[in-house]
Amino acid sequence: MSRRLLNLKGCRFGRLTAIRRAPNSANGRARWVCQCSCKDQTIVTVFQGSLRAGHTKSCGCIQREIVRRRICKLNKHQHGLNSPRHKHGFSRSGKQKQVPEYKAWTSMFERCSNPRTPSYKNYGAIGVSVCRRWRRKHGFQHFLACVGSKPTPKNLYSLGRFLDSGNYEPGNCCWMTRAEQEAERKGRRAMMALRKFHSTLNLPKRRKRGQREKANADRGAGRNGEQNCTLFSHGVSR
Questions:
Q1: Does 106 share its domain with 152?
Q2: Per-residue model confidence as pLDDT tens digits over 76-111
Q3: For residue range 55-73, what is the model confidence (pLDDT) as tens digits?
Q4: For residue 228, is it within any domain?
Q5: For labelling alongside 197, which of 52, 62, 69, 162 has CA 20 to 30 A away?
């Protein structure tokens, strides 16, 4: 069955306007070259089906704006702080790709605060949050000062947490490879298994310092009482 060829030239889909046909993909799917109406006038190639179904409506600028608004809302309503609006040179738009460190910073907010993000169930839903200093004004600079720039090659590293637990905060995050993150997850599972094993042993809880001193004093008084009883039973007075 042959696929229907449509002339979408000049048609508008969200912020995208179809300009001309592009070569079909490797599996024969029709594609169109489109221009976005954003300030950068970005040219992108989009599948015909995605345009007609409404799955693709921009060059990606809409998603960046949504992320920006969510970060502002999180800072304003939950913490009473304005999101950073300064120029730090790491956030880029249009044909220039975002610097990996800045992309990791925004993704960290998404998985901790956006319930629609697929990975939210593993982070925000179980209480993982981002420290206040990284959320407030100049938060990205504080974040970068704590974790540093990505090692090279940058595509092999992502932001990870020690033992894959705790919040995103200074001292608990660093750049890790996939193998290193998997090792942290295994270490966390081993620690949880050890705690579960200890809980099955019914070991006595460790007493605090004051409780230990009181117990030792009571034990010493008990020994002295036993000695006195023994001496008096033999007719010896101290």
A1: yes
A2: 544 443 444 445 555 555 433 568 888 899 899 899
A3: 888 888 888 888 777 766 6
A4: no
A5: 162
